[in-house]
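Researcher: First entry.
Model:
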Amino acid sequence: MRILVTGGAGFIGSHCVDELVARGHDVVVIDDLDTAVHRRAPDYLNPKAAYVIGDLLDEASLERALRGVDAVSHQAALVGMGRGLEDAPRYARVNDVGTAILLRHCAAAGIRRLVLASSMAVYGEGAYRCPRHGPQRPAPRRIADLERGRFDPRCDRCDLALAPEAIDEEATPDPRSVYAATKIHQEHLAFVAMREGGPAVTALRYHNVYGPRMPRNSPYAGVASIMRSHLAAGEPPRVFEDGGQLRDFVHVGDVARANALALERATPATGAFNIGSGERHTVLDLASALVAALGSVPPVVTGAYRPGDVRHIFASSERAATALGYRAEVPFGEGMRAFATASLREAVA
């Protein structure tokens, strides 16, 4: 197949390019090499792919990139928590308007398949169960509880701490950041386009992706790369709350393989699919694993909190296993040992 990877110079996008090239596909990349992301063209760009330098708002570049394409892996996005409403117009322009333009051109070009990089952020908080009152999706945590160090969400009927459970794709989206809102809007746009004759859409809801080529410390970096950057500077990684926040850390190689499986399936698997590791680990586990791999200063648990953060979210990826044949292959310990010394993308500031 001839496959267009949008954002194919970025962290996840470049690994998708490598995976697809290795599988024998003809790969085209469109990426604007945004100077807020890349100080210079990365040295890891795959020479077997063709590159169009431009963004999705540049329709002439997009038309050129889509020529002869059979399917699209849509990875281009502004990611991370960013700076809240200050970044909202840029997130909406890049993530939502860019996706709408891409979908219009895909439909016009007769492209029949699109894999969309979505995010676990669309769920907000994860799934929980009260020992007395059963399954719950809690409201945002109360500042008064956070101030007292009561970090786990509480049952709104009996005030007991809720027990976290793996979240599946049937959970109602509840985005709690600008980024999360744009990701669920991307899904909505793509599925509307599919119903109106556009490409069949497989939305992959990535959980906490880590691995080589992550950006260094920035407002848009993930927790794993921020901790790596602290350790590289000889500083202890700082862990918010009590470090007990549960996440699903999935290696970028597994995420790239999930994209390839979705693109290569004989018939498209439409809908949303969690892409996780099948394991849950705390943020303190993450910090401790990196410290152990580097023989460095121990993490500092600060007790600090950010009101918009969710407490626990980790994936059930069973739907992806059934429909796509996806199972994560990189164990947490092995992946973290490799990540501790992996190259990160150069800082831009």
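Researcher: Second entry.
Model:
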Amino acid sequence: MTADESRYLDEALELAYQGRALASPNPMVGAVLVNLGQVVGRGFHTYQGVKHAEVLALEQAGERARGATLYINLEPCSHHGRTPPCADALIAAGVRRVVAAMEDPNPRVAGAGLARLAAAGTEVERATEWEDRARRLNEAFSHFVGAGRPLVTLKTALTLDGKISAPDDNTGWFTSPSARAHVQQVRHDHDAILTGIGTVLADDCRLTDRTGLPRRLPLLRVVVDSQLRLPLDSRMVQSYQQDLVVATTSAASARRREALSALGVQVLTFDGPGGRVDLAAVIGWLGERQMTSLLLEAGAKLNWAALEARLVDKVLLYYAPKILGGLESLPLAAGPGRRSRSSAIQLHRLRTFPVATDEFVVEAWVA
């Protein structure tokens, strides 16, 4: 890749990123059309806008698309969805060359778009140096089209000795304002967020996306509450804006169910073993509603339940430069835990990055 071509691919990725919280359940895609060294068309996809990034770039370019090169973070589609195939539109417009950072993980495409372009005489090239960035950008979409359920990320803030709460006073935060602002950005990138009733009762939290950035749908908040103890005057309920679901069991009070429903809160029954909410069924329900990403912000018990049930795909651990110590401070995950070192839950593809002075995040996938 020349320096100019590298710049065009960088721009395509930056354009794609403008679709965050606006493209789901579709992937984020950015397209840059270049003819004779000049950018003649740009586009990025939003779900509401319907048109794909390639088509928007073609419309902007007009006749200048003929003989041009398209730089794009994701392979052009080859199937009819809400729009006709983008590969066909590129062929019809006379685009000479397509440079894509990665193939589409959707089994309905998976190389077929690039193959259709090549069969029509379009020069096709994979920009493999940009593939890792492109995959990270659309990791939730890739997981969703493969598994049929949202990518589940367990997020928590903790001390260096692995504690998430103190035994007595838990007012305030472990982490800095910079770290908490980063968490808001993470929330903005997700379709839904899930917590347990214990966290709501302890913190009176709202769990909203407070970035102020545009999004297609509100961040869907899900509270796991087997007995429907969610207070009607809690900040969670009082901040309701068509964005709150309570997952409960058939043993919950009918009166409480009616009271929450009267306020517009959606109350759904997911009976699981031991009178608890079936977490797998909740996540499956979110998948049926095309939620591609779920952020788990919960307490030690729910964290362990999700980990032990193999429902967590990755973790985001925000470490603060503090130590609580003691046996009563709660760890990241409580419950029975694993009884031997050899059976510990394994993480891989681990990376760390700073979020503030002396604070860092560990991001890793559950093996």
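Model: Note on the second entry: The radius of gyration is 23 Å.
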